[in-house]
Amino acid sequence: MPGYVHAWYVDIGARVKTGQLLASIDTPELDQQIVQAKADVATAQANMQLAQTTSQRWARLLTQDAVSKQETDEKAGDLAAKTAQVAAAKANLDRMMAEKAFSRILAPFDGVVTARRTDIGALVNAGAGASPNSELFDVAKIDRLRLYVRVPQVSSSDVKPGVKVTLTVPELPGRTFPAALDTTSNAISDNSGTLLTELLVDNPAGVLKPGAYAQVTFTLQSAATASGPQTLLLPSSALLFRDQGLEAAVVDATDHVRLRKVEIGRNLGQTMEITAGLGPGDRVIDNPPDSIAEGQLVRVVKSGAAQGTAAHAGD
């Protein structure tokens, strides 16, 4: 039922409690319908009382054989019909009173008003929730925030209850906030190839703001990492993407190139987690040319500043 905003009592930034009045709405059309519904209830009750009295009288006359059994049953049936009409009229009135209760906009929980999209005299239509930004107020519960983060499929098996999660926000550099993994979708999205996770962040002081941009970090330990030192980290620039698959160029004891097929675990950006194909003692060529070939002779140059070795393809 449409109405008009009579008054609003809180603005953006206000902290509200559960059940606190945010705004009131005038509903003149609904008010008139309620008056009519109350009159319908009174009429139905009067008709029921008359039918009850009549039914009782005919029941007494039946004991004296002054009326027929058929006529007495008709009066009893009329009483039942009038009783049902009272129930229907009361149900209609209760429905309208329930609608009237929504003319008082109350806070659903303790929180902060983050938006007010109405003013005095504004028309409020019933069922306007289908259109965007049709809410009169937005109230956010900020003492505990909920985050939705998509995790790449390659790391989805490592996202389990108890995983360590932290987040940072740009307006508070140097500060980290712990988060707890609440649940996951347990399904990989067809569109993004990621696992949707739901995180909870305690925010009792209200330092974090709803809707803010945050960077989330998961500290994951894959099954391969947990099994021992067989999982290695390799710069992404050291990998060769070829038709036969991923390869890494390794220098053997005679300074010749050996191409090794490798398997990767997690993609960590600048580095890759290698789960198979390399060992801890292998000398891997970083940023090898695309033309590098199996058995090619290279010259290993020692760099005193870097305390390491660099392999260069020979002629």
Helix content: 10-25%
Strand order of the largest sheet: 8-11-10-9-12
What is the count of DSSP helices, taking H or I runs of 4+ residues?
Answer: 4
Mean pLDDT: 86
H/E element sequence: EEEHHEEEEEHEEEEHEEEEEEEEE
| Share in β-strands | 35-45%
N-C termini distance:
86 Å
Structural class: alpha+beta
Evaluate the radius of gyration.
Answer: 38 Å
The number of strands is 21
> What is the overall shape?
elongated
Largest sheet: 5 strands, antiparallel
Task: Outline the secondary-structure elements.
Layout: E1 3-8, E2 15-16, E3 21-26, H1 28-63, H2 69-101, E4 104-106, E5 111-116, E6 123-124, E7 137-140, E8 144-152, H3 153-156, E9 164-168, E10 177-188, E11 194-202, E12 215-219, H4 223-227, E13 232-235, E14 239-242, E15 245-251, E16 257-261, E17 263-267, E18 271-276, E19 283-284, E20 298-303, E21 308-313
Antiparallel strand pairs: 1-3, 1-6, 2-5, 3-4, 5-7, 8-11, 9-10, 9-12, 10-11, 13-18, 14-15, 15-16, 15-19, 17-18, 20-21
What does this structure look like?
By secondary structure, the protein is an alpha+beta fold. It has four helices and 21 strands. Helix 1 runs antiparallel to helix 2. The longest helix is centred in the first third of the chain and has 36 residues, at 28-63. Residues 223-229 and 304-310 have low confidence and may be disordered.
From the structure above, extract its key features.
315 residues, 21 strands, 25% helix
In short, what is this structure?
This protein has 315 residues and is an alpha+beta fold. It has helices at 28-63, 69-101, 153-156, 223-227, and strands at residues 3-8, 15-16, 21-26, 104-106, 111-116, 123-124, 137-140, 144-152, 164-168, 177-188, 194-202, 215-219, 232-235, 239-242, 245-251, 257-261, 263-267, 271-276, 283-284, 298-303, 308-313.
